[in-house]
Protein: Glutamine--fructose-6-phosphate aminotransferase [isomerizing]
Amino acid sequence: FAADLGEYRHFMLKEIFEQPQSVAATLEGRLAADHVLPCLHGVSDALERLAQVDEVQIIACGTSYHAGLVGRYWIEANTDIPCQVEVASEYRYRRQPPRKNLLFVTISQSGETADTLAALEKIKENHGSLATLTICNVAESSLIRESDLALMTVAGPEIGVASTKAFTTQLVALQLLMVLLMQAKGADAGKIAKIVDDLRKLPALIEQALDLNATIEKLAEHFIEKHHALFLGRGELYPIAMEGALKLKEISYIHAEAYPAGELKHGPLALVDSEMPIVTVAPNTALLEKLKSNLEEVRSRGGVLYVFADREAHIQEADNLHVLEMPHVPELLAPIVYTLPLQLLSYHVAVQKGTDVDKPRNLAKSVTVE
Ligand code: G6P
Structure:
């Protein structure tokens, strides 16, 4: 990964376009024909410890926290291990009841975020865990030093303050961790082989999602005069809607909020009018039909929808309903692939608004003080 801008205008755009390579690099050497190879560094009995895990607690901040939220959907859908996720700044100041055979996972691009480090110290000082594991992008970081186990993301250096390629490689690492847990717990071999097969397709699917760049650049014009935006998703796409809203806030300074689409009727519908664009991620998952009826609720109240949808989802363009076709993706990989258009949308809105894309006001790349 070259450290200069090359042909790109901003590091953020360069890093968005590096994702086919960074995802491939994070998978490199870790997949066998039908299973995931042991790819954890640290204590030598890592796999034995994974076999004993009864619970997972994930801790992170910012974009890394959103990766953790997706990880919970994946781990609980594919293993019998309960998984909790919390932002580090809350977890560190809260009493924690002792837990049995806990795998304590921190996720961090930098490995230096003060709250995440403090949460790790807290679990070590209090009742401890079966193992502490960090998913991290910087090999010589404090989190790596302080954890029993490390699962490295291979995103290369990330310069833009708004995290992009670090996030998608964290999601890849969470897929690897999920499969390692499945293997340690004796899950169905056919199911594991299918996931490994799908993971191999990921870099090419990301390339296809990037083909939407020019279309999204035009679409961004619809957002530059807006003051608010709503992002909707369901299931494991809800954290992706959260990440899309965070990106838009961070670099374009437009207030954006994410909602799980099923919660619309409990409040946000009151805000819907033609002045608030509503961005939705709609892969062809089990919840698609439910999501479609949520979209109708919005449209019948005059809301303007921008829907990133699987080309097999059969969502038709209509008045106030803009459909952007995405490649068909295996359900488990949808959160990763659907992140790309939301990154591009926030990037182009910010560029057209003329903000400092790589260094948004008041924000730091790595927050090493409380
Ligand atoms: C800062 C950055 C975010 C990042 C968060 C957590 O707020 O601006 O992009 O997601 O810290 O950082 P970490 O290095 O722990 O992933």
Notes: The radius of gyration is 20 Å. The first helix runs from residue 11 to 17. The chain has a mean pLDDT of 94. The CA atoms of residues 110 and 138 lie 6 Å apart.
